[in-house]
TrEMBL record:
Its main location: membrane. This is Efflux transporter outer membrane subunit. The keyword Membrane applies. It is found in: Cell outer membrane. PANTHER family: BLR4455 PROTEIN (PTHR30203:SF33), OUTER MEMBRANE CATION EFFLUX PROTEIN (PTHR30203). Gene3D superfamilies: Outer membrane efflux proteins (OEP). NCBIfam families: outer_NodT. Residues 1-25 form the signal peptide.
Length: 472
């Protein structure tokens, strides 16, 4: 038998009822930024930019290392765990949109002794209670939306971390290949200096050259040996860095083979500046953070308004568990909680939330401008580096011819050793600069790939929102 509750809540009062009938959900403030965008970038390529941009270098060793790093890198795994935390937080925030239901039960047995007889009594109770806050102002919905945007920002943060890791790995890999090529070049230069030393020593022994010529040439050989030592040390340091990026011990053996620096691929299609905000994960992350703060303004404003809570309960009690379900009592309660005076605390928090939102919009605009600058900088640097490499190639050719002619004249006694020494050092320096410039050109292209987000598009990330209060 279901007993009617003695007190049902037929009304919350005429004033509260009017308030509920005329109220409406709070509207989030507008956050559309004024982005100063140009129509196009200063350079336009034609090659399609893929997500796996490192494939353009046609380097199987780099491709294998990249896959291994994406799987084992601990910083990337930490970013995935941060994403999992954001997912859990979004589910937690979404749970407030559903009623909270709890159950209770108890049973007790009392034995009394009045001195002459013993008496026993048993009491069983069972109850259900449901509580629900009517989200009349959109406070809970905004809280849930804010957590959802934080979750989306975490997803973009993971993509941005992957993009940065790929660029770091590629730069380190080609720095290693450059050092290996530098060691090969130093070995060739050492051999050339040794051959020249034999010529100088022959002239010295025949009385046609002073001993200082021999010593100066030996000094050049010692300087080359010192450079080889430093290059080998740098090579080992780069191997350590690659191992750490790949999630293994720095001193672990790295499976790699020396290879020449690759030829630069064709310039990729840079697209339009306006589409960069949709493509780059870090910019999308920054915008989702703006949207999260936008919802925070709604939450702060709604905290200044009354809250309406409904509570329903269903209970039964009996002195024997067989009769426990025979009689029930039900109740429905409603309550309004409204802040009357808090010294301006809630008003100040609402103002703070709005100012924080406005700050984030300005920071987002600045971040977009810096991202556009990264693209333009990479384009300019690559263009000028190409011209610089052309000049260096011509200088190396001329320096080689000068050294050949100077050594020939020295062998005939037509010039002194200082001219030979100067020609040697000039050629050696230019050859090393040329190698470094080749690697620098590759670094500028990697910077361009990273600035363009490596062809990253929104479709590459699943942006379905986590269901409120449910598993993702």
């Amino acid at each position: 038998m279901l007993q009617q509750p003695r007190t049902l809540l037929p009304t919350l009062g005429s004033a509260a009822l009017c308030l509920l009938l005329t109220a409406c959900a709070l509207t989030p403030p507008d956050t559309a930024p004024d982005l100063p965008l140009t129509k196009q970038f200063t350079a336009q390529g034609t090659t399609k930019l893929d997500n796996d941009w490192w494939l353009d270098f046609k380097d199987p060793q780099l491709q294998a290392l990249m896959q291994r790093t994406f799987t084992r890198n601990y910083s990337l795994q930490a970013a995935r765990e941060r994403l999992n935390q954001a997912e859990a937080q979004a589910r937690k925030a979404g749970a407030s949109l559903f009623p909270e239901i709890s159950a209770s039960g108890s049973g007790k047995r009392i034995r009394a002794d009045n001195g002459t007889t013993l008496g026993n009594s048993t009491d069983y109770t069972l109850g259900l209670e449901a509580a629900y806050e009517l989200d009349f102002w959109g406070r809970n919905q905004a809280s849930r939306e804010g957590a959802r945007y934080n979750w989306l920002a975490s997803r973009e943060s993971l993509d941005a971390a992957t993009m940065t890791l790929a660029a770091t790995l590629a730069n380190t890999w080609y720095a290693l290949q450059e050092q290996t090529s530098q060691l090969t070049l130093l070995a060739e230069q050492r051999e050339n200096l040794t051959n020249t030393l034999k010529l100088i020593d022959f002239r010295y022994k025949s009385g046609r050259a002073p001993a200082t010529d021999v010593m100066q040439q030996q000094l050049q050989l010692e300087a080359i040996e010192a450079d080889i030592i430093q290059a080998r040390a740098q090579q080992q340091v780069l191997i350590h860095q690659l191992n750490i990026l790949a999630g293994q011990a720095p001193s672990a053996p790295l499976d790699w083979n020396p290879a020449a620096l690759p030829t630069l691929p064709e310039l990729p299609d840079t697209g339009l500046p306006a589409t960069l905000t949709e493509r780059r994960p870090d910019l999308r992350q920054a915008w989702f953070e703006v949207e999260s703060l936008r919802q925070g303004v709604v939450v702060a404003r709604a905290d200044r308004l009354p809250r309406l809570t409904l509570t329903a309960s269903l209970s039964t009690a009996s002195d024997h568990w067989h009769n426990l379900f025979d009689t029930w009592a039900a109740s429905l309660l409603g309550g309004i909680t409204a802040p009357l005076f808090d010294g301006g605390q809630r008003k100040a928090e609402a103002d703070r939330a709005l100012y924080a939102l406005q700050e984030s919009v300005q920071n987002y605009t600045q971040t977009v401008l810096e991202a556009l600058g990264e693209v333009e900088d990479a384009l300019v640097r690559e263009d000028h580096q190409q011209a610089y490499l052309t000049q260096l190639t011509q200088q190396v050719t001329l320096a080689t011819q000068i050294l050949d002619q100077t050594q020939l004249r020295y062998a005939k006694g037509a010039t002194d050793y200082l001219n030979v020494l100067q020609a040697q050092k000039s050629l050696q320096d230019l050859q090393r600069q040329h190698l470094s410039a080749q690697r620098q050109l590759i670094e500028y292209r990697i910077a361009l790939y990273r600035a363009l987000a490596g062809g990253w598009h929104p479709d590459n990330t699943d942006h379905h929102e986590p269901p409120a209060g449910q598993e993702v």
